[in-house]
UniProtKB/TrEMBL annotation:
Belongs to the importin beta family. This is MMS19 nucleotide excision repair protein. It comes from Helicotheca tamesis. Its main location: nucleus. GO terms for cellular component: cytoplasm; nucleus.
Length: 374
């Protein structure tokens, strides 16, 4: 009851103690999971939505405090629930994701979907490893089950083959739900960022899962999300909300794409995939205002992923491919260099102002960033 209290300060005290109370294969985790999942939803009062639709009371914290609670306290309790009832945990989250993806759009749905994605993402390290055991030999599966029982006191008689199969199925179910009906996730910068974080965390699973086409779906979601992020969320309301967020849809989409490309570069070293990646890279330079919305770290992430793909090409294609990748950056650098010359001349005039010096520093920073990419 205390864990479901509307105040984050009150429920946080209880939730922080839960990991030591939840024992392996305990039904306590099954009873607690719905409560913890509800606590992962951003309090509607913090995002300007009515309280009545979600039945939430005053949470007593600001947006940053809530994110801190979720990342450092709630996530630990979610991991404990997962380790106690692995398959139930994933089935519950997959059902929620599927339901929210298929639901009629409302202002609250993206935040509920975001919470479900957060819950699955919080157990990504263990869940992806368990899911990939579906490809392992019986001996490797038995060794994994034994190691798990020694570390956590789990039942050594668990059917690890069936368990890993269920993990794989539920993670596939999550991804396919997002791929079929991405609107709920992409209509809001917060849910979009969390979806991309989910994809990035499970990139290793995508690269090795036996499910056909799953890797391509993850890559397509991350690339589309990146393009959508810097072409859609430009209004003042979205920008203000994104300033409050600790995660960025641009950064998470770039990281997800880098992770997927880096783990399976040969898979994307094909003409069609290279064409899509190339056009996406050029769009970063051709779209107005893209440099203001996308920082150098995000562009570095995408560039590093593409470079891994280019390295998987036959050696005789390296020179041409790298030149094509570098061309937009070099062209941009030429333009920026000219602007730097003009800005420097302006600062030397007798009538120069602080704005002229600010312009010069801005241009020099952009120049440094482009050189950094090269």
């Amino acid at each position: 009851k205390a864990a479901s209290h509307s105040s984050i300060h009150v429920c946080g005290i209880v939730i922080e103690a839960l990991p030591v109370l939840i024992m392996p294969e305990s039904d306590l985790s099954i009873r607690l999971l719905p409560v913890l999942q509800s606590k992962a939803i951003v309090p509607f009062s913090l995002v300007g939505l009515s309280q009545s639709a979600g039945g939430q009371g005053d949470c007593g914290v600001d947006f940053h405090e809530f994110e801190n609670f979720r990342e450092h306290i709630l996530s630990e309790a979610l991991v404990a629930c997962y380790k106690s009832s692995r398959v139930y945990f994933l089935e519950s989250c997959a059902t929620a994701i599927e339901e929210f993806c298929n639901a009629a759009p409302t202002p609250h749905i993206p935040f509920q979907l975001e919470a479900a994605l957060f819950c699955v993402g919080s157990v990504a390290m263990d869940a992806s490893k368990r899911a990939l055991l579906v490809n392992a030999t019986p001996a490797a599966q038995a060794a994994a089950a034994k190691a798990s029982s020694l570390r956590r006191g789990e039942n050594t008689n668990i059917d690890i083959a069936e368990d890993s199969k269920c993990h794989n199925e539920q993670l596939v179910r999550c991804t396919e739900s997002l791929a079929k009906n991405p609107t709920s996730a992409t209509s809001n910068p917060f849910s979009l960022a969390q979806m991309c974080r989910f994809i990035g965390k499970y990139a290793n699973f995508y690269s090795k899962s036996p499910t056909p086409g799953l890797l391509d779906k993850g890559a397509e979601l991350s690339l589309n999300s990146f393009n959508l992020a810097f072409s859609t969320f430009l209004d003042e309301k979205a920008s203000g909300f994104m300033d409050e967020m600790s995660i960025s849809p641009f950064a998470e989409a770039a990281t997800a794409l880098r992770n997927i490309l880096s783990r399976s570069p040969a898979h994307f070293a094909k003409p069609q995939a290279l064409s899509v990646l190339g056009s996406g890279w050029e769009k970063l330079y051709s779209s107005a205002g893209s440099t203001e919305r996308i920082n150098i770290e995000d562009r570095e992430a995408i560039c590093s992923g593409i470079c891994r793909v280019l390295a998987a090409l036959p050696p005789d294609q390296w020179s041409t491919s790298v030149s094509a990748l570098a061309r937009p950056t070099i062209e941009c650098l030429e333009i920026v260099t000219k602007k730097a010359d003009d800005a420097l001349i302006a600062t030397r005039r007798a009538t120069s102002s602080s704005d002229d010096f600010a312009t010069l520093m801005s241009v020099l920073t952009r120049m440094a960033n482009e050189i950094r990419l090269l």
